[in-house]
Known about the structure:
By secondary structure, the protein is mostly helical.
Amino acid sequence: MNSETVKPDQFASYRHWRVAMESLDACLNRTLGHDGLSLAELRVLVVLSEASDRRLRMSDLASDAHHSPSRSSHTITRMESRGWVKRIPHETDRRVIYVTTTPAGVALFTKVMPRYEAAIKRWFVDAVGAARINELDQDMCRIIVATNDATVFGV
């Protein structure tokens, strides 16, 4: 670690942030697991719920869910086998595949969201403090902007 770039307390803060995010994801995955759903699968349902007609191109879905194309394909295959989503080929362009939520997927999404939102409230909002959420959001948005389209650092 180069002490000129980051101070030990700053690096410790970064490590705490990583552990906190990993711990939160683990808790959310356990919560969703009661319904046989993973956090990655919920992200797909959330993104599709926000899309017009609950339908997106596979590539757009991967991007919006922050999944690699390969991870997205595996996730969609799993979800399709459970009847939660369906792939729909484009009418004229065989390279384009759409993904849409099935009625079973909509029902699952509707069922899990109240418990998921309660978990977010308990483990995120309450832990951070409702009065500090906007400040934290601004911090996270700055990190998102700083890392968008980032190349490998130092290369």
